[in-house]
Every structure is written in structure tokens, then in C-alpha cells.
């Protein structure tokens, strides 16, 4: 097959490209230039969008012995990922930009262009598995599993995807990279958000949305406890950085319970008030199942799984949790898994719109 290898400049994508070539495919490497101004994105081998990453990807392609190109997708990335990130926070939601990048850039814009150019598939270094049955499964390395951020992919996109590293641990990947003479063998993994150079998410949002002072109130009494400079600087479940001027009567910490952009209000309360047992979500992407499905759901990246019963009616998904969950934030993804001896199978995903509790605390 003619295969396009998406090479981020990291060790995983380099080894994935090498393994695709070793499997006999006709492989071409491509690095995505995603920054309109690369100097504003992360540097120091920590991101996936820097000039350094582009050079590392080119060197890896040279060692592997495959053609290599750079595709400028900065405008698409800014519109689909960066602008979406800002708009979601402004609406009181908590987006996952890596998930959106996989959905809109790596497996939409890139795959569409690859198919138009005559490629049969796109290979990436994601830690996830595609079985012979075509189903997406968790990686064997659960600490590095990325099936959560890939669960937004459609059946058609998965049919043209290749994930060669799903049966490998990160340690084995690095060992293979070293054995192949790839200089990125010891390169650190990327962390945080690539387009926020200093890691200050609140500052990044304030520069784009401006200062918007509002109140922080108690979720039970309605009492004003403090003020903020922008509701977009908070997320459900947040404990630190609240700067409350009125201490709780019981001395316990408070957490963000909800964000209301219309009134620019942040509501806080005790930890138990974060608990929800029903999650609703929109835009479901569901694979080969129908009716009420008992499964396990993951409600945020690297979060714990919770047993649940999931049902879909039209464009809405509802999950009834068997065990209450905390910190369920609108804008995040809910991903459903079916336990399987060969590895948990991704049943589908949706974007969380709300979390509720059947019985409120007294």
C-alpha cells in the first residue's frame, strides 16, 4: 500500500514510519507545520509543532530512507483547534485540543489530502490498536494509551488508519528507535498544550478574551464568596486558584461546580457536590452497537473508567453511571469501552454537555 506517515518529530511517529516501511509499504513522511508563528509555540523538544520538531522529523525520515515533505496546515489548525479552544472556554466548557486536532487535522484534513494524492492509508505513532476486525482498542501500554483521543474517528477514517505501536510499550519503542539509529530515541514526550508557549492557559485566554470580572458564589447558599477576572479561567472540579475571601464554615476546601457565562458567574461548593450519576452528551460517534449498552465509560483523558449504561436517541447520548463520578466537565469527551480479552474495545464517543445527580445533597 501507499502509506503517508504523519511524523511529528517524536520517537513514536518515527518508529511507526519505520515499521510501516519494514512491513513492505511504500511510505512517504510528512510533517505538519501547524504554527503561524513557530516562535510562539513550545520549544525545547516539548511540543509537536516547533521548528526543532520539523528538523527531527526530517532527520528521522533520512535515516529510515523515505521521502519527506512539510505540509503547511497552520490556517486549518488555528481555525479548527486554537479558535475552537478559545470559543469553548468562553462558552463555559473545557475542550480537549489534542482530541480536536486528531479529529479535524490529522484524520480529516490530512487524510482527505492523502486520499486525494493517491495514498491508501495514514500511519501515526499513536498508542492504540486496530484489530483484524477493524475495531479500535486500547494500547497494551495503558499508561500511554491514546484511544480516548482517537475515539472521535469515524469508521471510514479508522479503515484508512494504521497504528503500528499499539502492541508495544513505550520502553520497547525507545529501544527500537535506538537500535534503528534514530536520534529521537531519548527525546522527551510532548506535554501540555503545544500552542500555549508558556503553559499559562488562563493568561492565554485573557489575552484573547479580555478581562471580564464576575462573582464567585456558594452553590448552596448563593452567598458571594469572591470575584474573578474571567469565568473562562475555571473548569469543573478546580480547587486551586479560587482566591476566595470568605472561608467555609467547616474549613473544608471548595471546588468549582459550574460556570455560567451568561451571568459570568462561577459556582463553588464542597467536593461531594461534584458527584454526578447521569451524563448527557452530543455528537455521538458510535460503532456497530444499538439500544441500551452496558459498558465502561471514561470521562476525561487519563481518567478512571466507570461502569455505565449508555443509550443514544438521535444526536444525544445519555450515560447512567453505576458509580458517581466527580469533575465531569462539559466540552470533554465521554468514551465508551467494552471489556474484551484482547483489549478494551472502543464502542464510541460523544461530547459531554452536562453531568447531573439524581438526588441532590441536603
Automatic annotation (TrEMBL):
Every copy of the tRNA-specific 2-thiouridylase MnmA-like central domain together lies at 203-269
Looking at the record's lineage, which domain of life comes first?
Bacteria
- Residues the record annotates as the site (Interaction with tRNA) are 126, 332
Name one process (GO BP) from the record. tRNA wobble position uridine thiolation
Sorted alphabetically, which keywords does the UniProt record give?
A: ATP-binding, Cytoplasm, Disulfide bond, Nucleotide-binding, RNA-binding, Transferase, tRNA processing, tRNA-binding
Compartments, record wording: Cytoplasm
Its principal location? cytoplasm
Binding annotation for ATP: 6-13, 32, 125
Query: What are the record's GO terms for cellular component?
Result: cytoplasm
InterPro entries from the xrefs?
MnmA-like, MnmA-like_C, MnmA-like_central, MnmA-like_central_sf, Rossmann-like_a/b/a_fold
| Record carries keyword tRNA processing | yes
Listed GO molecular functions?
Answer: ATP binding; tRNA binding; tRNA-uridine 2-sulfurtransferase activity
What are the positions of the active site?
101 (nucleophile), 194 (cysteine persulfide intermediate)
Quickly give the catalysed reaction: S-sulfanyl-L-cysteinyl-[protein] + uridine(34) in tRNA + AH2 + ATP = 2-thiouridine(34) in tRNA + L-cysteinyl-[protein] + A + AMP + diphosphate + H(+)
Q: Where is this region: Interaction with tRNA?
A: 144-146
Q: Where is the tRNA-specific 2-thiouridylase MnmA-like C-terminal domain?
A: 277-352
Write the Enzyme Commission number(s) for this entry.
2.8.1.13
What role is this protein assigned? Answer: Catalyzes the 2-thiolation of uridine at the wobble position (U34) of tRNA, leading to the formation of s(2)U34.
| Family statement | Belongs to the MnmA/TRMU family.
Name of the protein described by the UniProt record? tRNA-specific 2-thiouridylase MnmA
Task: Give the species this sequence originates from.
Answer: Actinoplanes octamycinicus
Its gene name is: mnmA
Amino acid at each position: 500500500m501507499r502509506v503517508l506517515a504523519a511524523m511529528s518529530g517524536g520517537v513514536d511517529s518515527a518508529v511507526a514510519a519505520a515499521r510501516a516501511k519494514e512491513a513492505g509499504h511504500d511510505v512517504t513522511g510528512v510533517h505538519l507545520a501547524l504554527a503561524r508563528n513557530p516562535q510562539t509555540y513550545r520549544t525545547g523538544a516539548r511540543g509537536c509543532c516547533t521548528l526543532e520538531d520539523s528538523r527531527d522529523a526530517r532527520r528521522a525520515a533520512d535515516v529510515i530512507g523515505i521521502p519527506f515533505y512539510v505540509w503547511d496546515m497552520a490556517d486549518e489548525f488555528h481555525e479548527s483547534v486554537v479558535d475552537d479552544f478559545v470559543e469553548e472556554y468562553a462558552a463555559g466548557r473545557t475542550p480537549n485540543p489534542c482530541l480536536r486536532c486528531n479529529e479535524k487535522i490529522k484524520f480529516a484534513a490530512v487524510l482527505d489530502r492523502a486520499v486525494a494524492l493517491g495514498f491508501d492509508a495514514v500511519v501515526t505513532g499513536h498508542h492504540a490498536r486496530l484489530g483484524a476486525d477493524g475495531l479500535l482498542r486500547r494500547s497494551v501500554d495503558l499508561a500511554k494509551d491514546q484511544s480516548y483521543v482517537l475515539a472521535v474517528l469515524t469508521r471510514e477514517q479508522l479503515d484508512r488508519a494504521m497504528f503500528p505501536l499499539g502492541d508495544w510499550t513505550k520502553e520497547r519503542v525507545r529501544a527500537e528507535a535506538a537500535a534503528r539509529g534514530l536520534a529521537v530515541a531519548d527525546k522527551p514526550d510532548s506535554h501540555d498544550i503545544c500552542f500555549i508557549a508558556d503553559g499559562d492557559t488562563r493568561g492565554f485566554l485573557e489575552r484573547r478574551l479580555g478581562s471580564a470580572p464576575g462573582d464567585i458564589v456558594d452553590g448552596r447558599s448563593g452567598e458571594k464568596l469572591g470575584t474573578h477576572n474571567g469565568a473562562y479561567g475555571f473548569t469543573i472540579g478546580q480547587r486551586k486558584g479560587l482566591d476566595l475571601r470568605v472561608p467555609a464554615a467547616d474549613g473544608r476546601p471548595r471546588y468549582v461546580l459550574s460556570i455560567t457565562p451568561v451571568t459570568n458567574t462561577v459556582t463553588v461548593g464542597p467536593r461531594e457536590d461534584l458527584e454526578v450519576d447521569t451524563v448527557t452528551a452530543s455528537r455521538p460517534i458510535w460503532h456497530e452497537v444499538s439500544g441500551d449498552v452496558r459498558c465502561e465509560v471514561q470521562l476525561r483523558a487519563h481518567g478512571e473508567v466507570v461502569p455505565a449504561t449508555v443509550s443514544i436517541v438521535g444526536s444525544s447520548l445519555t450515560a447512567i453511571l453505576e458509580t458517581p463520578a466527580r469533575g465531569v466537565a462539559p466540552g470533554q469527551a465521554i468514551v465508551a469501552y467494552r471489556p474484551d480479552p484482547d483489549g478494551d474495545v472502543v464502542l464510541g464517543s460523544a461530547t459531554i454537555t452536562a453531568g447531573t445527580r439524581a438526588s441532590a445533597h441536603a
